[in-house]
Write a structure and sequence with these properties.
single chain, about 300 residues, mainly alpha, Serine Threonine Protein Phosphatase 5, Tetratricopeptide repeat, 3 domains, globular
Length: about 300
């Protein structure tokens, strides 16, 4: 292939990219989309041009109801411009729009399905309407008794409400029902372990936390629960390993370092315990700073207190 042909090919590609952008700006997405799709990954496409093609591509793809194209354009933008606020904002709206469209299709095509009731339950739960969310989850089980995850969700909702004398028993019943359907649900094992821990039933707590950590090797809370339960029955030496594992899984979580520090110190490993405690202090300070930065970013700098000079 001659050099002049390659240059001509690349020049045509750039011309197609410009044409695609112009068509997109005019709202003529049908002819624009193939041009945008074809030119966004050309080697001669500059960063600025790639960015413009990506944004135009997402908008046109959604206009034409082509979710596959929209996510492909977004993938290019995320790869080329990681952590860019405008692209992250675009992603929020894209996935929100896709979610709405999928839920509408589900509602219109399968209005009486268990999935519609589950969607309603999740929406009600997000609004804090736990009573009606529970009712919807119960309807799901009436329609599909062996549907995975529903007993687990019901159990979580029971625990979210004001505590009653039967709260733990009712939630445990749901988690056990979930495990009969899905024996590999690490979350259900964890909740049963946490209930047992809060009721000082240590052998049961250890058993459930152990199962949860085996089912999900990345479940830091399960390792923390296991370590705390082992310490409660003076099996401190055994507690060190799961607590150190939790600290490795979630190194930015202060809680993991705190309990690892306690276990290490109690087994006489003071130097390692002090190191974990230092990490606990560092991660706590970092978490607080992140929280303050987010709050300031959302709400703006706090006003000067009343009574101070300048007021």
């Amino acid at each position: 292939m001659s050099k002049s042909f390659i240059l001509l090919f690349l020049a045509c590609g750039l011309a197609d990219a410009q044409t695609g952008l112009e068509l997109a700006e005019q709202g003529r997405c049908q002819p624009a989309l193939p041009l945008l799709r074809r030119t966004i990954n050309l080697p001669t496409t500059t960063k600025d041009l790639k960015r413009r093609l990506g944004f135009a591509g997402v908008r046109c793809a959604m206009t034409l109801n082509s979710s596959e194209d929209a996510t492909r354009f977004l993938d290019v933008l995320n790869r080329e411009f990681p952590h860019d606020p405008e692209i992250l904002f675009l992603a929020v709206h894209l996935y929100s729009d896709l979610s709405i469209r999928a839920s509408q299709e589900l509602l219109y095509t399968n209005p009486g399905s268990p999935q519609v009731h589950q969607l309603n339950a999740e929406s009600l739960e997000a609004q804090g309407d736990w009573k009606h969310a529970l009712e919807e989850y119960r309807v799901v089980l009436e329609r599909q008794p062996n549907m995975r995850g529903i007993h687990y969700q019901i159990g979580r909702l029971i625990l979210s409400q004001p505590k009653t004398p039967t709260t733990f028993a009712d939630a445990s019943k749901e988690m056990q029902a979930e495990l009969r359907i899905d024996p590999y649900n690490a979350g259900a094992e964890y909740v049963l372990g946490e209930i047992a821990r809060q009721e000082d039933r240590w052998p049961e707590a250890i058993d459930h936390f152990s199962k949860a950590s085996r089912l999900d090797a990345g479940f830091a809370d399960a390792f923390v629960g296991l370590g705390r339960s082992l310490m409660a029955v003076d099996r401190v030496a055994e507690a060190v390993a799961p607590l150190q594992t939790a600290a490795r899984i979630e190194p930015q979580n202060p809680t993991t370092h705190y309990y690892a520090a306690i276990a290490l110190r109690r087994t006489g490993r003071k130097v390692e315990g002090d190191q974990e405690y230092a990490l606990f202090q560092q991660t706590t300070a970092k978490a607080q700073k992140t929280k303050d930065d987010v709050q300031q970013g959302v709400m703006g700098p706090q006003r000067v207190e009343m009574g101070k000079p300048g007021q």
